[in-house]
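Second attempt. The first submission of DUF3492 domain-containing protein had a stray character pasted in from the spreadsheet, which I only caught after the job came back as garbage. Lesson logged: always re-copy from the clean sequence file. Corrected sequence (616 aa) follows.
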Amino acid sequence: MRIGLLTEGGYPYVSGEARLWCDRLVRGLEQHEFDIYALSRSQEQEDAGWLELPPQVGLVRTAPLWTARTGTGDDGACGGALGRRARRRFAALYAELAEAVIGGPDEADRFASALYGLAELARDEGGLGPALRSETAVRILERACRAPGARRAARGARVPDLLAFAAEVECALRPLSLDWYDDASGGSGGGGLGAVDLCHATSGGSAALPGLIAKRFHGVPLLVTEYGVRLRARYIAAGDAELSAPVRALLAAFHGRLAAEVYRQAAVITPGNAHARRWQERCGADRAKLRTVHPGMEASRFAEVGEREEPGEPDTLVWVGRIDPSKDLISLLHAFAEVRKEEPGARLRIVGAMPTDSGSGSGSGEGREAEAYLGHCKALAAQLFPDEATGLHAMGENPVSFEELGAPEAPGLAEVYGSGSVVVLSSVVEGFPISLVEAMFCGRATVSTDVGAVVEVIGGTGLVVPPRNPRALAEACVALLRDSDRRERLGAAARARALELFTVEQNVTAFRGIYLEIVSHCPVRREAVDDAGEPRPFAHPPEAHVPGRWTAPAAGGIGGTWLAGRSSGAGAPSWASASGDSRDSRDSRDGDGGGGGGGGREELAGVTRGRGEGDA
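This time the job returned cleanly.
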């Protein structure tokens, strides 16, 4: 099978989001071929280079979302000035898009119509960059904001606000102008997204937009995975950027419309946790399309510590994470002051890392903010815990230590977690708590604040307290420090849970099945050819195109949901229903492709081997 993997600000770059998860997925599904379509977020990210890619990656195409122009290097299309007829067409479509964003809640269809109209115009004209940044676009936005029925927050938008919003829209719609969508499928690695069997977007928003276009132009099914909800991240980023209220309102409406369309068109949506799932449902995702797939993490690196009988220092608390105000180290330090009143010998080890995502480092604004926050925490620790000396001639030592991950005193994660008996998470904002899963792999008892997906991850194997409540955090830590038997029971249960739910193997297995099911229910209808470009006349069995009862929704199954809205002539045959026979035929393809499967195996081969590939 040929997969178009769509990323934004991550894989295949060495820095960014979800890069490790994507790399493990691609390497774990070596029977498939992957084409990578990556949107980068900064010059620093591009300069840092790519990860070493496995042989099953046949094509990598990149485009920036950070440049001031729509130029896309050697892989995209810039697009020139539009002619008179195209300008009129653009003005009508952009006005429709603006009115759908600024208008009332029942404008989803209108937004989608305008979005796909702009995509078709970009395809016909070679790009829309200059038009999206033009004075015409700004005037259209101004008229939409002043029109009756516009959002109240948008009515007060001034020219600087409209310019800022137009720039954000141009950046978000930049994928429309790329030349990624041709459907030539003659040879290995040839063609674009129109030639793949499945588009897999590793986040919503701009990353999923190429998948929407491939589905619109070529009928390629779309799978969307979100471990951190892109819409939520954009809401937070808009607040951090100190944008005006009208710009924030307009951006929230635009990205909300785009997210709703992505969820509507996706064949399957795989949130990484219940927290992300709730966001997706609130944004309009059909519950029948949602399937939670927890992110996979490498458990082997923590095996030695997890299986070790030594429990670590019984009076040491460990915090591990990225230095950031959202981690609320201030509350942790105040909580530890309460812990010391009950357990004078307790120690707190804070092991952190400066933010490096998307090419940011200590020289960036985010890095400087992290350094300032760390300095504030160190000053508070020195104030709360004056250096203690055991005698008149001994040097004092602070019970709180600040260490950098990778430094000589904290060389590796496994040893850091193994050095203490309790791992603490004090965040006020959290998505999927990676540090908790790592602590669970190490068999450590945990105390966490109830944020994000913490409760879902812990599942009763640790103590959970409200955020921004130092007293509750301190009481939970003291309870575990005083009860070694309870710590051991919780640590063993946590390790067993993590090995069952959060390994790379379970993640890869889940996506292997999802890939095959989507393609079996939503096959791409194209002429099957071999490596030489010659037609393969018997690749598609004729019964796959015959309307019948098998195109109706299957009772209690997922096939009916995927087939909803499709024409009866393009429906899945009876072997693709959610029955035991369907699973058997699917399982037969998970091996070497031989034996069993009957008509299902033959049809799937026609889809996935359209380019002469026999082992996908």
